[in-house]
């Protein structure tokens, strides 16, 4: 039995630990906020009228994931947001959300905006997809 790690005292490889597990804290007493996940795709007239690009309404053809998180009684300055390729980690003084994303995302390209009137944080993330017959652009 050989250990592939540089450190001989480790009992597992980094590939064996799922991404985002370092944020998973079951003993944290903070409440999990309500959230909603929706998908968004960019369509043009060639898609709507002619169906030329082969896009359909399924999530396999969507380019963006939009996550709306309800954060009542929260100020913008209290929000800490960390996004990795497969994990969204949100923390406020009263709420905590560790969300494993349904698709890998480009963590460098994303945007978040806080709608203070509705007390909602809206996070839009670009889905990272491999090229296939549907996703070729």
TrEMBL record:
Family annotation (Pfam families): PIH1_CS
Domain PIH1D1/2/3 CS-like: 32-127
InterPro entries listed in its UniProt record: DNAAF6, PIH1D1/2/3_CS-like
Entry GO MF terms: dynein intermediate chain binding; protein-folding chaperone binding
GO cellular component: cytoplasm
Region (Disordered): 1-27
Composition bias, Acidic residues: 16-26
One GO BP annotation of this record: axonemal dynein complex assembly
PANTHER family found in the cross-reference section: DYNEIN AXONEMAL ASSEMBLY FACTOR 6, TWISTER
Family, as annotated: Belongs to the PIH1 family.
Stated name of the protein: PIHD3 protein
Gene source species: Catharus fuscescens
């Amino acid at each position: 039995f050989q250990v592939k790690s540089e450190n001989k005292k480790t009992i597992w490889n980094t590939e064996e630990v799922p991404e985002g597990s370092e944020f998973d804290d079951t003993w944290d007493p903070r409440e999990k906020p309500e959230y909603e996940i929706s998908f968004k795709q960019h369509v043009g007239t060639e898609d709507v009228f002619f169906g030329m690009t082969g896009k359909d309404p399924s999530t396999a053809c969507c380019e963006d994931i939009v996550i709306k998180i309800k954060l009542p009684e929260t100020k913008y300055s209290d929000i800490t947001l960390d996004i990795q390729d497969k994990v969204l980690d949100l923390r406020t003084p009263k709420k905590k959300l560790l969300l494993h994303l349904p698709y890998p995302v480009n963590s460098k390209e994303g945007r978040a905006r806080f709608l203070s009137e509705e007390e909602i944080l809206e996070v839009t993330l670009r889905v990272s997809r491999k090229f296939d017959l549907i996703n070729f652009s």
